[in-house]
Amino acid sequence: xxxxxxxxxxxxxxxxxxxxxxxxxxxxxxxxxxxxxxxxxxxxxxxxxxxxxxxxxxxxxxxxxxxxxxxxxxxxxxxxxxxxxxxxxxxxxxxxxxxxxxxxxxxxxxxxxxxxxxxxxxxxxxxxxxxxxxxxxxxxxxxxxxxxxxxxxxxxxxxxxxxxxxxxxxxxxxxxxxxxxxxxxxxxxxxxxxxxxxxxxxxxxxxxxxxxxxxxxxxxxxxxxxxxxxxxxxxxxxxxxxxxxxxxxxxxxxxxxxxxxxxxxxxxxxxxxxxxxxxxxxxxxxxxxxxxxxxxxxxxxxxxxxxxxxxxxxxxxxxxxxxxxxxxxxxxxxxxxxxxxxxxxxxxxxxxxxxxxxxxxxxxxxxxxxxxxxxxxxxxxxxxxxxxxxxxxx
Length: 394
Ligand code: KG4
Ligand code: ZN
Hints:
binds zinc ion, binds 5'-O-[(R)-(carboxyoxy)(hydroxy)phosphoryl]adenosine, alpha/beta, five-stranded mixed sheet
């Protein structure tokens, strides 16, 4: 089965083409454009800019991905006139129309598109695009939850395939790891911080979540206070690592909010506010001091996540534990969680996403869409709704 996957929930425009057989997925095409540098001057994602950028890039990226997949057949194609009825923006409509008129319907069986959670104007762009292609090419469209994509992204192992192919970077093959339920997931991104238990396929229970900021957001805000660029997570991590390598003296101290509280909930806004006051008191700071604050922030965030994961594993007795979302790229946090599992929960299987899948991408959306489809989820090619606050545990 061939899947075209579309991700536009935030500031990454991503298109992937996957060939799925049972539990193996070959990435035949993968085109991703990150708008992060465009949002940098706002210090966060600016929804209308995100929407415009998605509109501008979706058709060209789809063309790139189809070409990589050797599925781009140029010709003169006629399609039902009403396929573009829902596309109200003139420039967006004409870019889709130009693309469709020159491209034969590819050998795709299913279109998977993120329908939430995320920024609604951005989500709508992907949905409208998916439904236009679905109507023009007569292919069913399935809506995918972005967080479910992050969960499955952790369960993919790369298959060793022909090294020549890997060198040309054209094909990566992923296999879904065999795992046992219940599966606990720690989802840590720019918009979410939650512990979710999957009892069985697609049956979820909320174990804990942030009461204020997401951990990625706290990384980004701390970075901003330290004068580091957006998105700040990787920059804070780099500074923190420098402090550890150099053995920089520890002077900064930050709180670990809710660490001893009996719930599995988190709170990160207090750490960020503490960073603000700390820096105010420090006045002009040296690079070394900046590294020290970054290290202390990362330690504080990690301590809280380790403590809450411990509590969640004790209460749920999950057999599998996965970490997903942009912050799962963080090496120091991974090390803390890995040590927790090794020392205290040796019978729990632990999975992290492949480095190419930690951030937002369309591969995970295609895989989640395929798994839903295999388990009988309905697809349509009209009528999907963007749902900014959608939750797996609604
Ligand atoms: O999942 P994601 O790409 O987008 C959302 O769905 O939000 O997550 C983005 C977040 C940003 O806050 C970014 O700063 C953070 O992930 N991030 C990191 C690292 N890499 C990305 N945070 C800490 N350490 C990292 N290495
Ligand atoms: Zn994400």
